[in-house]
Amino acid sequence: MQLFDVYPLYDITPVKGKGAYVFDKEGNKYLDLYGGHAVISIGHSHPAYVNSVTNQVAQLGFYSNSIKNPLQQELANKLEKVSGIKDYNLFLCNSGAEANENALKVASFYTGKDRVIYFDNAFHGRTSGVVAVTDNDNIKAPFNQNHKATKLALEDTETLEEELKKGDVAAVIFEVIQGVGGLDEASSAFYKKIAELSKQYQSAIIADEVQSGYGRTGDFFAYQKHGIRPDIISIAKGMGNGFPIGGVLIDKAIEAKTGMLGTTFGGNHLACAAGISVLEIIEKDNLVENAGKLFKYVEEKASEISQIKKVKGRGLMIGLEFDFPIAQLRKDLLYKHQIFTGAAAANKNLLRILPPLNLQKQHFDTFFKALKIALD
Ligand SMILES: Cc1ncc(COP(=O)(O)O)c(C=O)c1O
């Protein structure tokens, strides 16, 4: 049987990971400045994480959500403590798309409304509701076309109010810093306006922190810098350091009803053990702080390279905008210098850097040295 062929693949087969590095089957060592799409938060094969996951699978890997699983509450408590957010409840699921899909459902149940506002260049996932609020027609099948979804431009408060005024908007969903779209971030004034208008017209606001959350930007959640309180926050990627786990943080004012949401695998024992271990390591090793302070160093190093026009993002969610399309540069970095980086869908000149949160200056020194050679 062949695999359903949907991914463009690099001709590399990683078989091992350690910290900020992965190793292929020939023993070549690669610096991972992409973290497998921003997933690797605490570094590959962190020993404490390996221990926790190993011990848990030896004990009990899975049982369904029909029994008590105290690990779920332990994860919720730890997340509250490490993130600093208060008065939310946690629903556990398995991926970013599923987190957003559930976030939209909760908003719709809560408001009794059915239309969703999203923004230019947004990416919220590939399942039916969330692909409908993703700005990429190539990944929407006819089946996905019938959701009530309205796309707006960031910073356009006037149209936002006109749309909310119509009274049928269940939610406004946004990535606080866009990932796939190319690292754009609206102003605090705009985020505050979304919050204010949503309250006025009884819609919910959903912060998609699937990529920007879990410490990546130097705050636990990227929205925390903007002085807003989302009704719903979706999380995934860095949460399990590669173990598939996602979640929805739901304001306590929104009441749960039995059967309102559900999943077979979500919140299973092994996923919780991975999630708890990630939070313990983020806390113990001050990884949020580490992510925050490295950005300045990257800006300094980038200023020495004339072809870099702009450094976008925050913390370790970085976009280097060049004055030319970077597809070939990315390949050179990978095949000639053994460095993984990422690209953006909406901006062909943007090189994305999403490394593990325990990266050090020396790794950026290696990167910028290689970048200079590649550019020459
Ligand atoms: C901001 C954002 N939301 C949602 C998703 C979807 O997550 P998943 O691929 O885990 O379904 C992604 C994935 O890249 C993302 O970047």
From TrEMBL:
InterPro entries membership: Aminotrans_3, Aminotrans_3_PPA_site, Class-III_PLP-dep_AT, PyrdxlP-dep_Trfase, PyrdxlP-dep_Trfase_major, PyrdxlP-dep_Trfase_small
Highest taxon listed in the record's lineage: Bacteria
Cofactor(s) required for function per UniProt: pyridoxal 5'-phosphate
PROSITE patterns membership: AA_TRANSFER_CLASS_3 (PS00600)
Alphabetical list of Gene3D superfamilies matching this protein: Aspartate Aminotransferase, domain 1, Type I PLP-dependent aspartate aminotransferase-like (Major domain)
GO molecular-function terms, A-Z: transaminase activity
Keywords, alphabetical: Aminotransferase, Pyridoxal phosphate, Transferase
Cross-referenced CDD domains: OAT_like
Pfam families per record: Aminotran_3
UniProt-listed PANTHER family: ACETYLORNITHINE AMINOTRANSFERASE, MITOCHONDRIAL, AMINOTRANSFERASE CLASS III
Homology family: Belongs to the class-III pyridoxal-phosphate-dependent aminotransferase family.
The protein's name in its UniProt record: Aspartate aminotransferase family protein
Lineage, opening ranks: Bacteria, Pseudomonadati, Bacteroidota, Flavobacteriia, Flavobacteriales
